[in-house]
Automatic annotation (TrEMBL):
It holds the Pfam family PfkB. The keyword Lipid biosynthesis does not apply. The lineage of its organism: Bacteria, Bacillati, Actinomycetota, Actinomycetes, Propionibacteriales. It comes from Kribbella orskensis. Belongs to the carbohydrate kinase PfkB family. SUPFAM superfamilies: Ribokinase-like. This is Fructokinase.
Amino acid sequence: MTAPVLVIGEALVDIVGTGGRSNGSGSGRNGRHGTKATPGGSPANVAVGLARLGLPTELVTRFGTDPYGDQLGAHLFGNGVQLAPGSVDPHFRTSTATATLDGDGVASYQFDITWEPPALSLSRGCPAVHTGSIATVLEPGAEAIRRFLGSLAEQPVTVTLDPNARPTITPDAESTWAAVRGLAASADLVKLSDEDCEFLRPGATPDEIAAELLAVDRTRCVVITRGGEGAIGISRTARIEVAAPAIKVVDTVGAGDSFMSALIAGLHTRGLLGAVRLEGLDEETLSDVVDYAVKAAAITCTRHGADPPTAAEHKSTWG
């Protein structure tokens, strides 16, 4: 691969607090007050995860040149992520997400974000385009993404989507699900979490949700993560379940994004990106790719913040 994977979406700073881990005196897990600001944003996390797994990656995003923006830029550059022209804008205020961790290390978020990407274009030879999260629902940027994905129908590129539903941004589940289905119609692979499913399609089973998304011509695979229970992969010809390894969870920040980047990387190593658009994704391959992604997410859960593994870390941990 020479042309980079293209990732589109928000880059922001996670301000992580520990209010949910209170011991009754208002102190966090280490007995101290305070927060920590770390680079984040689901698409940005996916881009970093891809780069750490060895895939050339370009991120189309937008953030400022304020202190938070400088922190983001240093993080992305330091991890080998290319930034598309216009992604750094001195007139733009860098967005933030305040994350609170509960007693199990599971994060909930409050956002201070605006989203308007620079011009979107596809480089020759680009094997995959990934997008998702707030960038696909927050206007005016969401409309730009919808138009861009629609323009890729005849292009030799694999499109992946992770809606990563945020009820605080889009509280109307019915309209959000309609938006997700519209975007999914332009995607070859859709990844959801069990929390996404519960919010977007309450009462529906994973198989029912997958069937809805696979009903369109383009979508060929749906993967649903289930936290500590692993993940389910459903294609037109296969259905697999992968268990998660037993780990000690520090927090879940960025785990789903690590899963997504490893899923794309696993498909790449098996030659399923680009013009083939997942053609030939059989049961054994789907199981292997989802297992690789589950284990990448597990590593992220064993450390603080959105800290996806490198390919070497993945191999040394799981073999």
